[in-house]
Design a protein that fits this description.
It is found in: Cell envelope. By secondary structure, this protein is α+β, with helices and mostly antiparallel strands. The chain has three domains: 147 residues, D-Maltodextrin-Binding Protein, domain 2 (3-Layer(aba) Sandwich), CATH 3.40.190; 121 residues, Dipeptide-binding Protein, Domain 1 (Dipeptide-binding Protein, domain 1, Alpha-Beta Complex), CATH 3.90.76.10; 213 residues, Dipeptide-binding Protein, Domain 3 (Dipeptide-binding Protein, domain 3, Roll). The chain has 13 helices and 21 strands. It has a seven-stranded mixed beta sheet, sandwiched between helices. Strand 6 and strand 7 form a beta hairpin. Helix 12 packs antiparallel against helix 13. The two termini are 20 Å apart.
Amino acid sequence: MFNRSRCLRHVVAIASMSLVAGCGVLSGGGADDKGPIVVGTTSAPSTLDPAASWDQSWELFRNIYQTLLSYPDGATTPQPDAAESCRFTDSSNTVYSCELRSGLTFSDGHKLDAQAVKYSIDRIRKIDVNGGPVGLLGSLERVQAVGSREVVFHLNKPDATFPFVLATPAMSIVDPDDYPADALRKDGKVLGSGPYRLESYQEGKEAVLVANDRYKGLAKPLNKAVTIRYYQDSGPMVRELRAKKIDVAFRGLTADDIVSFQRSDSKDFQLIEGTGTEINYLVFNPKDPWAAKPAVRRAVAQVVDRAAIAHKVYKDTVEPLYSMVPAGLTGHTTGFFDQYGDPDVAKARKILTAAGITQKVPLTLWYTSDRYGSETAKEFKELKRQLEASGLFTITLKSRPWKTYVSGYQKGEYPVFGRGWFPDFPDAENFIAPFVGRQNALGTPYPASRITDDLLPRSRRESDRAEVVKEFEEAQKVLVDDARLLPLWQGKQYVAASEDISGAERALDPSTIMLMWELHRKTSW
């Protein structure tokens, strides 16, 4: 850590801990004398419509829209937000009812009632965007509005995780008068009921948020306005942070940035480190003639050196990952290490020759050029080096900006492509279910009936998630055998901020989404 001066000299700021107080007076949420807090990130939204997004557009959604449930500071289980109360009303976890707070409105004063909630969920299913959030609603049979304040969700099978789904920003409540029922909104505007309203938006550049005076919910905003600036590369973002042109930098910090901020001479800044469940992985497209071959996928899995990627590219700011379920969650395994062990070219060659493949395998690996930070390009160059050094592969690297990148993988254009994943909710299911089935977050159908028809339904009957470890372990064995998804590393969360900013250590929810309302300036020391 750095910023060791004054009373923070020996304090390590961790996201799950509260900031140590006792060294001056911190602001209580009044107006910021220096204007809006400015947050920089390399993670720009791909859309402003919740019905289209199953990605980091959620970062913005959480702050401008509202969901029935969300996560108050420090909570890991969903709590009522737009709702006053929510519960399963039966013993089999198939009927879930929520009672809305009274007097809810959207930021323009339009009434937010049970019909608006039903409309919002129904339109997700009706529009059915490929790779969109409809995949989260596989257990939903129908939504019922009872009067003006009660919403009842009837499920087609037991699903103890359904409250977690309702807490995702995908289930943001929209105004039926402003969002078409059968098409996405495309005018670049937003109407929500969250802590902020979107005053202005420049795609890929900036989102200006101001406090929504009509908001009623869990959040207790500590600032009046936040401006989010979007960068394509971490370099300009960090330079503007050091020049005090922005106050906070989040997502996209490189290993070099983190190491630099950790030095004791970075006295005007603070680095907040949080345990993270972010994962990075490769996806193999079965439409490609080479990636479709199990032997090719398994040979890649046998050659890839995760530890080298973590050390050489990320300077040990990430950890090698051998399971789609990250360490720290119940159900985590080391399945890929158990099956493949350390990188071994001889074993990989044996896998290929046993399948009758004796030539060098040509593969094109795709990555996004502006989503996860500038180190992504270095990571894929290292993957290319490793695979070609084995003498078994010929690798071509290609990249696109995120918005066109998403369109490409949803159309099945990429033989092998990289993705990052920040959890929708803190449960092992959310690192398995989103990637399998006909509709999934990848836009690449992955039929896995053993998982979708047996293991996941079994796990969803159990409210005590510690009791479903066996199901998650078996599901991960299927993923390892198929090797269609290849986990590479697990990251931590880092936030860099000017020393006069407080609240960043409380601003990350269990999905590592930044709750902008927790940020505020220290009024004095």
